[in-house]
């Protein structure tokens, strides 16, 4: 812990403040140490207009997470510099440990044994996310196929 601690800073958010905003670039990873957050994703592609979709807030809440599990956010940004894939917003006063790509990889270069352990943990988290998303894709494609087949039989 003494070797890992220096790469992290502490960040505090009030309810309603975004830790991560979908579509923005970022290179930071966060660990929730106190509070509660909501993870959400836009249901529309940027610039897409769907006239039949009349919603007050076209966002899907993916999860509400609390400090007890010390969830990690933004780990993908450490691997690449793509845009954020979801929004993480504080729903209670919250505190996070935060590190960035440069500090993270500097630690891995200096402490390879720690790096292996950190990468294993991040890999398990990403694998879990991929498995969950694969299940959601199957549900979605099945629902779409059913809806399309019903639509074909309706005159």
TrEMBL record:
InterPro entries: cNMP-bd_CS (IPR018488), cNMP-bd_dom (IPR000595), cNMP-bd_dom_sf (IPR018490), Env_Response_Regulators (IPR050397), RmlC-like_jellyroll (IPR014710). SUPFAM superfamilies: cAMP-binding domain-like. Residues 1-125 form the Cyclic nucleotide-binding domain. Gene3D superfamilies: Jelly Rolls. Transmembrane segments: none annotated. Pfam families: cNMP_binding. This is Crp/Fnr family transcriptional regulator. It comes from Pseudodesulfovibrio indicus. The lineage of its organism: Bacteria, Pseudomonadati, Thermodesulfobacteriota, Desulfovibrionia, Desulfovibrionales.
């Amino acid at each position: 812990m003494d070797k890992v601690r220096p790469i992290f800073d502490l960040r505090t958010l009030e309810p309603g403040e975004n830790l991560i905003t979908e579509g923005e670039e970022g290179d930071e990873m966060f660990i929730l140490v106190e509070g509660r957050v909501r993870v959400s994703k836009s249901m529309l592609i940027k610039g897409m207009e769907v006239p039949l979709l009349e919603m007050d807030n076209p966002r899907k809440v993916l999860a509400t997470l609390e400090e007890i599990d010390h969830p990690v956010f933004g780990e993908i940004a450490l691997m690449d510099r793509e845009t954020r894939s979801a929004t993480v917003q504080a729903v209670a006063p919250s505190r996070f440990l935060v590190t960035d790509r440069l500090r993270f990889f500097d630690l891995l270069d200096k402490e390879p044994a720690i790096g292996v352990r950190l990468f294993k943990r991040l890999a398990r988290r990403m694998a879990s996310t991929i498995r969950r998303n694969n299940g959601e894709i199957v549900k979605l494609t099945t629902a779409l196929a059913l809806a399309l087949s019903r639509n074909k039989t309706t005159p």
